[in-house]
Design a protein that fits this description.
Number of helices: 12
Distance between the termini: 16 Å
Number of strands: 19
Radius of gyration: 24 Å
Strand content: 15-25%
Largest sheet: 8 strands, parallel
Shape: elongated
Protein backbone atom coordinates (compact mmCIF):
# COMPACT_ATOMS: atom_id res chain seq x y z
CA UNK A 1 0.00 0.00 0.00
CA UNK A 2 1.32 3.44 -0.97
CA UNK A 3 1.48 5.94 1.86
CA UNK A 4 1.52 9.59 0.89
CA UNK A 5 1.79 10.97 4.42
CA UNK A 6 5.05 12.51 5.59
CA UNK A 7 4.44 12.45 9.36
CA UNK A 8 3.45 8.99 10.57
CA UNK A 9 2.88 7.32 13.93
CA UNK A 10 4.00 3.75 13.31
CA UNK A 11 2.36 1.18 15.61
CA UNK A 12 3.72 -2.35 15.84
CA UNK A 13 0.93 -4.82 16.66
CA UNK A 14 3.39 -7.69 17.06
CA UNK A 15 5.04 -5.81 19.92
CA UNK A 16 1.61 -5.09 21.39
CA UNK A 17 0.92 -8.82 21.37
CA UNK A 18 4.28 -9.56 23.01
CA UNK A 19 3.55 -7.04 25.78
CA UNK A 20 0.09 -8.51 26.34
CA UNK A 21 1.46 -12.05 26.50
CA UNK A 22 4.16 -11.03 28.99
CA UNK A 23 1.65 -9.30 31.25
CA UNK A 24 -0.73 -12.26 31.04
CA UNK A 25 2.11 -14.59 32.02
CA UNK A 26 2.52 -12.66 35.27
CA UNK A 27 -1.15 -12.94 36.21
CA UNK A 28 -2.88 -15.93 37.78
CA UNK A 29 -4.78 -17.86 35.10
CA UNK A 30 -8.13 -16.88 36.58
CA UNK A 31 -7.50 -13.12 36.39
CA UNK A 32 -9.33 -11.34 33.57
CA UNK A 33 -7.87 -8.41 31.68
CA UNK A 34 -9.46 -5.03 30.98
CA UNK A 35 -7.68 -3.05 28.26
CA UNK A 36 -7.70 0.69 28.90
CA UNK A 37 -8.29 2.31 25.50
CA UNK A 38 -9.61 5.70 26.59
CA UNK A 39 -8.37 8.90 24.94
CA UNK A 40 -8.00 7.26 21.53
CA UNK A 41 -6.01 4.43 23.15
CA UNK A 42 -3.57 6.96 24.57
CA UNK A 43 -3.20 8.48 21.12
CA UNK A 44 -2.49 5.23 19.29
CA UNK A 45 -5.95 4.72 17.78
CA UNK A 46 -8.64 2.99 19.81
CA UNK A 47 -10.34 1.09 16.99
CA UNK A 48 -7.34 -0.79 15.60
CA UNK A 49 -5.80 -1.32 19.04
CA UNK A 50 -9.08 -2.66 20.46
CA UNK A 51 -9.73 -4.96 17.51
CA UNK A 52 -6.29 -6.49 17.87
CA UNK A 53 -6.57 -6.87 21.64
CA UNK A 54 -9.99 -8.49 21.31
CA UNK A 55 -8.43 -11.09 19.00
CA UNK A 56 -5.71 -11.67 21.60
CA UNK A 57 -8.31 -12.45 24.26
CA UNK A 58 -8.79 -9.28 26.28
CA UNK A 59 -11.94 -9.70 28.38
CA UNK A 60 -13.24 -6.10 28.44
CA UNK A 61 -12.39 -2.53 27.48
CA UNK A 62 -12.24 0.64 29.59
CA UNK A 63 -13.17 3.97 28.01
CA UNK A 64 -13.60 7.49 29.39
CA UNK A 65 -17.05 8.40 28.10
CA UNK A 66 -20.02 6.94 26.27
CA UNK A 67 -18.99 8.32 22.86
CA UNK A 68 -15.77 6.32 22.95
CA UNK A 69 -17.81 3.23 23.85
CA UNK A 70 -20.38 3.77 21.12
CA UNK A 71 -17.61 4.12 18.54
CA UNK A 72 -16.08 0.80 19.59
CA UNK A 73 -19.45 -0.93 19.36
CA UNK A 74 -20.12 0.52 15.91
CA UNK A 75 -16.74 -0.81 14.79
CA UNK A 76 -17.60 -4.33 15.89
CA UNK A 77 -16.12 -4.69 19.38
CA UNK A 78 -18.26 -7.32 21.12
CA UNK A 79 -16.63 -7.65 24.54
CA UNK A 80 -17.76 -5.63 27.56
CA UNK A 81 -17.13 -1.88 27.36
CA UNK A 82 -16.86 -0.08 30.71
CA UNK A 83 -17.53 3.67 30.71
CA UNK A 84 -15.55 5.44 33.44
CA UNK A 85 -17.59 8.67 33.47
CA UNK A 86 -21.06 7.98 32.03
CA UNK A 87 -22.66 11.27 33.06
CA UNK A 88 -26.39 11.87 33.15
CA UNK A 89 -27.24 12.52 29.50
CA UNK A 90 -25.96 9.32 27.91
CA UNK A 91 -28.23 6.71 29.45
CA UNK A 92 -30.15 5.96 26.23
CA UNK A 93 -26.95 5.37 24.27
CA UNK A 94 -25.50 3.28 27.10
CA UNK A 95 -28.56 1.03 27.06
CA UNK A 96 -28.77 0.87 23.25
CA UNK A 97 -25.12 -0.13 22.81
CA UNK A 98 -24.93 -2.31 25.93
CA UNK A 99 -22.25 -0.24 27.59
CA UNK A 100 -21.45 -0.66 31.29
CA UNK A 101 -21.31 2.55 33.36
CA UNK A 102 -19.03 3.04 36.35
CA UNK A 103 -21.15 4.35 39.23
CA UNK A 104 -19.15 6.42 41.70
CA UNK A 105 -21.57 8.49 43.81
CA UNK A 106 -25.07 8.35 45.27
CA UNK A 107 -26.58 10.78 42.79
CA UNK A 108 -25.41 8.69 39.84
CA UNK A 109 -26.59 5.46 41.48
CA UNK A 110 -30.06 6.91 42.14
CA UNK A 111 -30.22 8.20 38.57
CA UNK A 112 -29.52 4.75 37.12
CA UNK A 113 -31.86 3.11 39.64
CA UNK A 114 -34.69 5.19 38.15
CA UNK A 115 -34.09 3.48 34.83
CA UNK A 116 -36.03 0.23 34.84
CA UNK A 117 -34.06 -1.29 31.96
CA UNK A 118 -31.68 -4.06 32.95
CA UNK A 119 -28.16 -2.67 32.99
CA UNK A 120 -24.72 -3.85 34.09
CA UNK A 121 -22.86 -1.44 36.36
CA UNK A 122 -19.50 -1.20 38.08
CA UNK A 123 -19.19 0.36 41.54
CA UNK A 124 -16.14 2.54 42.18
CA UNK A 125 -14.81 3.34 45.65
CA UNK A 126 -12.34 5.96 46.80
CA UNK A 127 -9.48 4.35 48.74
CA UNK A 128 -7.16 7.35 48.99
CA UNK A 129 -6.79 9.05 45.63
CA UNK A 130 -9.74 11.34 46.46
CA UNK A 131 -10.94 11.61 42.92
CA UNK A 132 -13.98 9.57 41.77
CA UNK A 133 -15.59 6.99 44.05
CA UNK A 134 -17.99 6.23 46.88
CA UNK A 135 -16.69 6.37 50.43
CA UNK A 136 -16.71 3.21 52.51
CA UNK A 137 -19.44 4.68 54.74
CA UNK A 138 -21.76 4.96 51.70
CA UNK A 139 -22.15 1.19 51.74
CA UNK A 140 -25.50 0.98 53.55
CA UNK A 141 -27.18 3.36 51.13
CA UNK A 142 -25.68 1.52 48.17
CA UNK A 143 -26.97 -1.80 49.49
CA UNK A 144 -30.45 -0.40 50.02
CA UNK A 145 -30.66 0.90 46.46
CA UNK A 146 -29.28 -2.30 44.96
CA UNK A 147 -31.69 -4.52 46.89
CA UNK A 148 -34.65 -2.44 45.68
CA UNK A 149 -33.45 -2.35 42.07
CA UNK A 150 -32.63 -5.85 40.84
CA UNK A 151 -32.36 -4.51 37.28
CA UNK A 152 -28.95 -3.13 38.30
CA UNK A 153 -26.46 -5.95 37.83
CA UNK A 154 -23.18 -5.27 39.63
CA UNK A 155 -20.49 -6.61 37.29
CA UNK A 156 -17.53 -5.49 39.40
CA UNK A 157 -16.28 -3.22 42.15
CA UNK A 158 -13.17 -1.14 41.55
CA UNK A 159 -10.81 1.52 42.85
CA UNK A 160 -7.66 3.24 41.60
CA UNK A 161 -4.11 3.33 42.93
CA UNK A 162 -2.67 6.83 43.02
CA UNK A 163 1.06 6.11 43.26
CA UNK A 164 1.70 2.54 42.16
CA UNK A 165 4.66 3.70 40.05
CA UNK A 166 6.55 5.18 43.00
CA UNK A 167 8.46 2.77 45.29
CA UNK A 168 8.78 5.56 47.86
CA UNK A 169 4.99 5.46 48.29
CA UNK A 170 4.53 1.69 48.44
CA UNK A 171 3.16 1.88 51.97
CA UNK A 172 0.42 4.20 50.74
CA UNK A 173 -0.35 1.86 47.83
CA UNK A 174 -0.51 -1.14 50.14
CA UNK A 175 -2.85 0.80 52.40
CA UNK A 176 -5.14 1.46 49.45
CA UNK A 177 -5.08 -2.20 48.51
CA UNK A 178 -6.04 -3.23 52.05
CA UNK A 179 -8.85 -0.68 52.27
CA UNK A 180 -10.18 -1.95 48.96
CA UNK A 181 -10.08 -5.56 50.19
CA UNK A 182 -12.09 -4.57 53.25
CA UNK A 183 -14.70 -2.77 51.13
CA UNK A 184 -15.05 -5.73 48.75
CA UNK A 185 -15.44 -8.23 51.58
CA UNK A 186 -18.05 -6.06 53.28
CA UNK A 187 -20.02 -5.64 50.06
CA UNK A 188 -19.95 -9.34 49.22
CA UNK A 189 -20.94 -10.36 52.75
CA UNK A 190 -24.03 -8.17 52.59
CA UNK A 191 -25.06 -9.11 49.05
CA UNK A 192 -24.24 -12.82 49.54
CA UNK A 193 -22.66 -13.02 46.09
CA UNK A 194 -19.15 -12.96 44.65
CA UNK A 195 -18.41 -9.70 42.84
CA UNK A 196 -15.24 -9.44 40.72
CA UNK A 197 -12.92 -6.66 41.88
CA UNK A 198 -10.09 -4.66 40.32
CA UNK A 199 -7.76 -2.05 41.76
CA UNK A 200 -4.60 -2.86 39.81
CA UNK A 201 -3.59 -0.53 36.98
CA UNK A 202 -0.53 -1.11 34.79
CA UNK A 203 2.07 -0.27 37.44
CA UNK A 204 0.03 -2.11 40.04
CA UNK A 205 -0.09 -5.22 37.89
CA UNK A 206 3.65 -5.11 37.32
CA UNK A 207 4.61 -4.33 40.92
CA UNK A 208 1.83 -5.46 43.29
CA UNK A 209 -0.01 -8.39 41.75
CA UNK A 210 0.94 -10.68 44.65
CA UNK A 211 -0.59 -8.17 47.09
CA UNK A 212 -4.06 -8.54 45.63
CA UNK A 213 -6.65 -11.24 45.19
CA UNK A 214 -8.51 -9.23 42.53
CA UNK A 215 -10.26 -11.16 39.78
CA UNK A 216 -9.66 -8.48 37.13
CA UNK A 217 -6.80 -6.12 36.25
CA UNK A 218 -6.77 -2.95 34.11
CA UNK A 219 -3.91 -2.67 31.62
CA UNK A 220 -3.18 0.50 29.68
CA UNK A 221 0.25 2.12 29.41
CA UNK A 222 1.99 -1.23 30.03
CA UNK A 223 0.40 -2.72 26.92
CA UNK A 224 1.76 0.12 24.83
CA UNK A 225 5.27 0.04 26.27
CA UNK A 226 5.13 3.41 27.96
CA UNK A 227 6.55 1.98 31.18
CA UNK A 228 10.26 1.52 31.69
CA UNK A 229 10.43 -2.25 32.08
CA UNK A 230 12.91 -4.69 30.51
CA UNK A 231 10.15 -6.99 29.22
CA UNK A 232 7.78 -4.35 27.90
CA UNK A 233 8.68 -2.69 24.61
CA UNK A 234 7.37 0.59 23.20
CA UNK A 235 5.00 -0.28 20.35
CA UNK A 236 5.08 3.05 18.52
CA UNK A 237 7.42 5.44 16.70
CA UNK A 238 6.79 8.97 15.46
CA UNK A 239 8.63 9.80 12.26
CA UNK A 240 8.57 12.59 9.71
CA UNK A 241 10.81 13.92 6.95
CA UNK A 242 12.93 16.96 6.21
CA UNK A 243 10.82 19.39 4.19
CA UNK A 244 13.54 21.94 3.53
CA UNK A 245 17.20 22.53 4.32
CA UNK A 246 19.14 25.78 4.30
CA UNK A 247 22.46 27.24 5.36
CA UNK A 248 22.48 30.21 7.73
CA UNK A 249 25.34 32.48 8.69
CA UNK A 250 26.62 33.31 12.14
CA UNK A 251 24.35 35.96 13.67
CA UNK A 252 21.23 34.99 11.71
CA UNK A 253 18.13 34.03 13.69
CA UNK A 254 15.64 31.18 13.42
CA UNK A 255 11.93 31.07 14.12
CA UNK A 256 9.40 33.26 15.89
CA UNK A 257 10.68 36.04 18.15
CA UNK A 258 14.18 35.47 16.69
CA UNK A 259 14.54 33.15 19.69
CA UNK A 260 17.62 31.37 18.34
CA UNK A 261 20.63 33.25 17.00
CA UNK A 262 23.35 31.21 15.30
CA UNK A 263 26.71 31.36 17.02
CA UNK A 264 28.36 29.94 13.90
CA UNK A 265 27.56 29.09 10.29
CA UNK A 266 25.00 26.27 10.36
CA UNK A 267 23.09 23.79 8.22
CA UNK A 268 19.45 23.55 9.37
CA UNK A 269 16.38 21.51 8.46
CA UNK A 270 12.66 22.25 8.64
CA UNK A 271 10.49 19.30 9.77
CA UNK A 272 6.67 19.49 9.33
CA UNK A 273 5.65 18.66 12.91
CA UNK A 274 4.56 21.30 15.38
CA UNK A 275 2.71 21.95 18.59
CA UNK A 276 -0.62 21.40 16.81
CA UNK A 277 0.58 17.81 16.31
CA UNK A 278 1.37 17.46 20.00
CA UNK A 279 5.07 18.33 19.93
CA UNK A 280 5.57 20.23 23.17
CA UNK A 281 6.90 23.77 22.76
CA UNK A 282 9.22 23.20 25.71
CA UNK A 283 11.37 21.08 23.38
CA UNK A 284 12.33 24.19 21.40
CA UNK A 285 15.47 26.26 21.74
CA UNK A 286 17.88 23.33 22.10
CA UNK A 287 15.98 21.60 24.91
CA UNK A 288 14.86 18.74 22.65
CA UNK A 289 16.39 16.66 19.92
CA UNK A 290 15.43 14.43 17.00
CA UNK A 291 17.41 11.75 15.22
CA UNK A 292 18.62 11.66 11.64
CA UNK A 293 20.80 8.73 10.57
CA UNK A 294 20.89 7.79 14.28
CA UNK A 295 22.54 11.12 15.06
CA UNK A 296 20.98 13.45 17.63
CA UNK A 297 20.10 16.83 16.15
CA UNK A 298 19.05 19.65 18.45
CA UNK A 299 15.77 21.50 17.93
CA UNK A 300 16.54 25.20 17.55
CA UNK A 301 14.22 28.18 17.76
CA UNK A 302 10.61 28.13 18.91
CA UNK A 303 8.48 25.21 17.80
CA UNK A 304 5.78 26.49 15.44
CA UNK A 305 2.20 25.27 15.06
CA UNK A 306 3.05 23.00 12.13
CA UNK A 307 6.85 22.75 12.04
CA UNK A 308 10.16 23.00 13.86
CA UNK A 309 13.79 23.49 12.89
CA UNK A 310 16.71 21.19 13.70
CA UNK A 311 20.46 21.75 13.56
CA UNK A 312 21.86 19.26 11.01
CA UNK A 313 25.37 20.69 10.88
CA UNK A 314 26.93 17.47 12.20
CA UNK A 315 25.10 14.95 10.02
CA UNK A 316 24.64 14.35 6.32
CA UNK A 317 20.99 15.16 5.64
CA UNK A 318 18.90 16.25 2.71
CA UNK A 319 15.33 17.10 1.87
CA UNK A 320 13.01 14.09 1.99
CA UNK A 321 15.17 12.27 4.53
CA UNK A 322 13.53 10.48 7.49
CA UNK A 323 13.51 12.09 10.92
CA UNK A 324 12.76 10.13 14.11
CA UNK A 325 11.09 12.10 16.88
CA UNK A 326 10.71 9.12 19.19
CA UNK A 327 10.86 5.35 18.80
CA UNK A 328 11.60 2.26 20.90
CA UNK A 329 15.29 3.17 20.65
CA UNK A 330 14.69 6.83 21.51
CA UNK A 331 11.84 6.27 23.93
CA UNK A 332 8.90 8.41 24.87
CA UNK A 333 9.86 7.76 28.51
CA UNK A 334 13.18 9.52 27.92
CA UNK A 335 11.38 12.37 26.17
CA UNK A 336 8.96 12.64 29.10
CA UNK A 337 11.86 12.86 31.53
CA UNK A 338 13.38 15.66 29.46
CA UNK A 339 10.07 17.54 29.65
CA UNK A 340 9.48 16.78 33.33
CA UNK A 341 6.19 15.13 32.43
CA UNK A 342 4.88 11.58 31.89
CA UNK A 343 4.62 9.40 28.75
CA UNK A 344 0.82 9.48 29.01
CA UNK A 345 0.72 13.21 28.27
CA UNK A 346 3.02 12.99 25.26
CA UNK A 347 1.04 10.09 23.80
CA UNK A 348 -2.44 11.42 24.50
CA UNK A 349 -1.74 14.83 22.97
CA UNK A 350 -0.66 13.48 19.57
CA UNK A 351 -3.07 15.11 17.14
CA UNK A 352 -5.34 12.83 15.16
CA UNK A 353 -4.21 14.51 11.94
CA UNK A 354 -1.03 12.45 12.27
CA UNK A 355 -1.44 9.33 10.16
CA UNK A 356 -1.47 6.09 12.18
CA UNK A 357 0.01 3.10 10.36
CA UNK A 358 -0.31 -0.38 11.87
CA UNK A 359 2.01 -3.25 11.04
CA UNK A 360 3.00 -6.72 12.16
CA UNK A 361 6.79 -6.87 12.20
Amino acid sequence: MTNNHETILHINLTTLEANFNFLKSKLPNSVKTIAVVKAFAYGLGDIEISKHLEKLGVDAFWVADFEEGVQLRKEGISKGIIVANPGYKSINAIIKYQLEPVIFNNRLLEFYANCKEKISIHLKFNTGMNRYGFEANDLQKILSILKNNPQLNVESVCSHLSSSNDPNKDNFSKGQIQRFKDICENLENHLKINIPSHVMNSNGAVRFITESNNEWVRLGIALFGGLEHPNLKQIFSLKSIISQTRFIKKGQSVGYQNSFVAGKDMHIAVIPVGYADGLNRKLGNQKGQVFINDTACRIIGDISMDSFVADISEVYAQEGQEVTIFSPKYSVSKLANDLDTIPYEIMATLNRRIKRVYSNE
